[in-house]
Structure formats: C-alpha cells, structure tokens
Design a protein that fits this description.
The protein is of the alpha/beta class and about 400 residues long. The protein folds into three domains: about 280 residues, Metallo-dependent phosphatases (Purple Acid Phosphatase, chain A, domain 2, 4-Layer Sandwich); about 60 residues, no CATH class; about 45 residues, no CATH class. About 25% of the residues lie in helices and about 25% in strands. The strands form five sheets. It has a seven-stranded mixed β-sheet, with helices on one face. A six-stranded mixed β-sheet has the order 7-6-5-2-16-17. The termini are far apart.
C-alpha cells in the first residue's frame, strides 16, 4: 500500500553522506489537448538544477519516462540533453533508466558516450549495476528499466495466464532480485526502477494498459537490503510501505487532469552505509496548474476575470441544450483546453413523421440536438449536398 508524501519540513542537517535527488516521469514532449508543455518542463528542470546545486547533490536518480514517446521531437531531446550537459558542468552524476514511454535502444545508443561523463543511461532490461562514489562513501545502484511483457515471460505463457495477476509480476520480481544480487556490504545500496507496485495510487494520466493488475508487483518483493528505492511510473508523489525507504517521485508537472490539485515534489536523499536513508520532500513550483471547474452561464462571466494562467477543464451547466456554447466559452476562457456541457433538462427527441422530406428531417434533428432552428445557410448546404449525392450515378 502507499501513502502520500506530506508537506516538506525544514531540512535537518546531518553528517555529510552520499546525497541524491530522485525524480521521474518528465514525459518531455507531452502536450495537453494540443497545448505544448516543453517550456514548462524547461522551467521545472531549471528549478531541479537549482535545488541540486543548493543542496550539493552528488547524483541524480531519474526513474524512467524521460520522454513521452518512442520517437521524441528534436526539441524534446535538446532540452533533456542540455539538462544533462548542465549536470556535467556542475559535476553532478546521474543514473537514468528507461520507462515504458522511452525507446530503450534509443536511450542505450548514448550510453557509451555519456558513461565517461558520469551520466549513466540504462535504457533497456537488464539495466545492470552502476557504481558511484562521493568522498569516503561508495554506492551500488541496481538499475531496473521498464520490463516489456515479451522480455518478462514468453508471449504464449502470458496469454494463457491472463486470468492470473502474478505471471508478469513474478517474472519482474525475479529480475529485481537478480539486479540487487550485486549489493555490497559496506556500500550504499540503491534501487532505481520503473514499475507498478500493487496498492500504489494512480492518477489516470499514466498509460492505462500498464497500470493494470497483471503489471502490479507486490511491495513485499522490494529488497529490504536497499538503503533507498527510487521508483518511477506513477505520477502521484507517494511513499510505499515496505521494509526499505521507497518512494515514487511523481511527475514534475501536472500532466493531465487526473493530477489536478497535486503538489509536485523532488526527493532529497542522504544515504550512508549501514544506516537508514534520510528522505526529504522538496516542493516544485514550476509549471501551470490544472483545474476542474463547473460553471453556470452567470458564473462563467464572473470567473473569466479571475481564471489566471491555469489550464482548465470546464463543465458548463445550463438548463437546456446550448448551441455553439464551446466557441463562446473559448472566447471567454482561452485556457480552457477541455470543454464539456451538462444540460439539466436534456432534450427528448420526439418521433419524426416519415412523410417529411430529407431537409425537413435534418432540420427536425438539428432542433432536438441544439434546441434551436438550423441556420438557413446550413439547410441550403444540406439540400445542395443531398441533391449531389442523390443524383450521382451508382
């Protein structure tokens, strides 16, 4: 099971140890109903860099879904790799794994180039082990990118066992145990993984087919020997109840309306060999908020003056069907990216006489849908198209 991360508190200074930041699910290139979000992500990553510098972080853990698609646009790649270049400039290492939205081979193509710069990219399963060091501390990072079904179990076996929720999860648990088998005594042992833990809270903005029960791994499979487990895949920041400190960082932006109202975070981890990791939640402030609002026509006129810069999903409540409401609403609320209409008294279509000619039938249908007569131009266009179709040789 999971619990939400609470508000962060002032950081308590402790003995210098290996210091890490945990983030995930950037989804670079993702838009919202056609609205680009790349500039918002740039601001969020700038904020992340500022936090990393301020907190003197040794390493950044990026737990998958760096990009939103297998073939990200050049602008998305430029933003991400410019960010990694800034990490190199500030001498901060990173361990980056692939998620279910990332193209594993595309990420791995850069591994040999980035490894010498201490940006360790592990795009595909098995991710293997990454070794880090900071002063006297040494760390072993077990990297587990997203495991596709075809690599977890044979397709025939998976199809034959779709009634069982354990086939895929058991296979991934075995891969996880193999990954942590390289943990060492006297080292800081870390896991960075992109997976779904049973009982964790989804936001609805994740890829639906990959947060169903067949993909859910029981929390008991997470290794007790880990000093910290950094998870990606679910967009809601939350802590997982298990035997080791374990968190989903969540996405840095509110990606869709299932995340409306969520406070976004990055996690600061202080880890030392032989001690439980100290974890702090640091709020992220970049990015536009998403809001769900329900309005009447009178409320719409008042709300429009105070809507601000938030992206809106608007439900307009009216007593009767209202033709052309979406265009009027967009003029009043240009940031309304999702518009819905809820009529308190939906029109009930009456049976139409079969003796009506086609244009009359169309006009009657239009009235039942829009509670208004169709424009004369629309009727004229209907007649023209009907005549053209009716007289076209078959």
């Amino acid at each position: 099971m999971a619990r939400l991360i609470g508000a962060s508190r002032p950081y308590a200074k402790i003995t210098r140890s290996m210091r890490l930041l945990h983030t995930a699910d950037w989804h670079a290139g993702k838009s919202l109903r056609g609205r680009p979000r790349l500039e918002e992500l740039r601001l969020a990553l700038t904020e992340l860099l500022d936090i990393a510098a301020r907190e003197r972080v040794d390493c950044l853990l990026v737990a998958g879904d760096v990009f939103d698609s297998y073939a990200p646009a050049a602008e998305s790649e430029r933003l991400v790799y410019n960010f990694f270049a800034e990490l190199v400039r500030t001498r901060i290492s990173a361990v980056v794994i692939g998620g279910n939205h990332d193209h594993p081979h595309r990420l791995d193509a850069l591994a040999r180039l980035l490894d010498p710069l201490r940006i360790f990219v592990r795009g595909q399963h098995p991710g293997g082990m990454v070794e880090l060091e900071s002063g006297s501390e040494r760390a072993v990072v077990a990297a587990l990118p997203w495991v596709p079904e075809r690599l977890a179990v044979p397709v025939a076996e998976l199809r034959a066992s779709m009634d069982s929720t354990s086939v895929y999860a058991d296979a991934v648990a075995a891969h996880l145990q193999q990954a942590v088998s390289q943990f060492r005594n006297g080292a800081v042992n870390l896991v960075v993984a992109h997976l779904h833990i049973h009982g964790a809270l989804v936001s609805g903005s994740e890829r639906a087919s990959h947060v169903t029960m067949p993909y859910a791994l029981p929390a008991r499979c997470l290794p007790e020997a880990a000093h910290y487990i950094a998870l990606g895949h679910l967009h809601r920041p939350q802590q997982i109840d298990c035997r080791a400190p374990c968190h989903y960082a969540g996405s840095p932006l509110q990606l869709d309306f299932g995340e409306a109202g969520q406070s976004k975070r990055i996690l600061l981890i202080d880890a030392r060999a032989g001690a439980r990791a100290h974890v702090e939640s640091i709020p992220l402030t970049a990015g536009r908020r998403l809001r769900d609002v329900s309005l009447s026509l009178d409320q719409l006129r008042t709300f429009a003056t105070s809507a601000g810069d938030d992206f809106l999903r608007v439900t307009l409540d009216t007593p009767h069907p209202l033709p052309g409401f979406a265009a009027e609403l967009r003029r009043s609320l240009p940031n309304a990216v999702d518009i819905r209409h809820r009529s308190q008294e939906p029109a009930t279509p009456a049976p139409l006489p079969s003796s009506l000619e086609p244009a009359e039938l169309f006009a009657a249908f239009y009235r039942t849908r829009h509670n208004a007569a169709p424009p004369r131009e629309l009727i004229a266009l209907f007649r023209e198209l009907y005549e053209e179709v009716a007289h076209t040789p078959r």
